[in-house]
Fold this sequence. Notes:
Elements: E1 2-6, E2 8-10, E3 16-22, E4 30-37, E5 43-50, E6 56-58, E7 66-71, E8 76-81, E9 90-98, E10 111-112, E11 116-120
Parallel strand pairs: 2-11
Antiparallel strand pairs: 1-3, 3-8, 4-5, 4-9, 5-6, 7-8, 9-10, 9-11
Amino acid sequence: QLxxxxxxxxxxxxxxxxxxxxxxFTLDYSAIAWFRQAPGKGRERVxxxxxxxxxxxxxxxxxxxxxxxxxxxxxxxxxxxxxLKPEDTAxxxxxxxxxxxxxxxxGNYKYRGQGTQVTVSS
Length: 122
């Protein structure tokens, strides 16, 4: 089970953090992804981390502005978002695939969170 928290309303240029806590399984040797879905658009993968070696990939539009991290003691993954833009407005979801590599397909993640709303607006 994944429980997402954080999100909210922020002005353009601001920062926001969202987190996702896993229960019932470990984050070790997993692919941890953040997806988002903007109004009227499909769900896209924003980032993915391989916990086995720390490799992280981001889509071009958030590279340098977003950062993924984990706290293994809390079994929690974080998405730190900076220099936010109105086009970052979306529902953000975390998803985890234990013991396998990253993929861009939402349906291939065994554990999928319920999403949290991020709105960037003045």
